[in-house]
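lol forgot to send this yesterday, sorry. struct tokens for the thing we talked abt
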């Protein structure tokens, strides 16, 4: 008989450390001044998604203890930061412009495949009906603009030279 055990880290609820549902909130001494900061790190990540100022306690010396409301707000904020970062990265790796070619709407897209050793990119022209007109490799630093897309289309979608 096989027993499958789902591993989930145990929750921790301490004044300066909360670990719950994949997130760790840690209140730390702010290195820049006499205050305190809180870092939010998602389980499995080495770097925090969020580091921000933390409120002083009533004694004006020690930090305010973490609580459920603060933890939930921190999780929400950290998730939003991660989502924005992912959207920004997606926007950097995929760009598209629309142009008109012989009276037809054409979308020209640049898709970049990041790779530390061998990044690559592809330039694709697609007609409004979804049919692919051209697809050529380009340098990952190719600058896609409406003007460059129009020049490429007007030239008959040649294979890109070394920009």
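and heres what i got for the seq, position by position
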């Amino acid at each position: 008989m096989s027993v499958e055990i789902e591993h989930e880290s145990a929750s921790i609820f301490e004044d300066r450390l909360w670990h719950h549902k994949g997130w760790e909130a840690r209140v730390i001494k702010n290195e820049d001044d006499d205050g305190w900061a809180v870092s939010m790190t998602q389980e499995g990540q080495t770097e925090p998604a969020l580091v921000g100022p933390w409120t002083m306690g009533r004694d004006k010396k020690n930090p305010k203890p973490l609580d459920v409301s603060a933890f939930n707000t921190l999780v929400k904020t950290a998730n939003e930061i991660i989502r924005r970062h992912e959207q920004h990265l997606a926007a950097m790796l995929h760009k598209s412009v629309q142009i008109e070619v012989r009276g037809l709407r054409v979308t020209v897209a640049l898709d970049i495949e990041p790779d530390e050793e061998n990044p690559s990119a592809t330039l694709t022209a697609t007609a409004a009906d979804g049919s692919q007109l051209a697809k050529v490799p380009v340098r990952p630093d190719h600058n896609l603009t409406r003007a460059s897309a129009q020049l490429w289309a007007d030239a008959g979608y040649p294979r890109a030279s070394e920009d």
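DSSP finds two helices and nine strands in the chain. anyway ping me if u want another try
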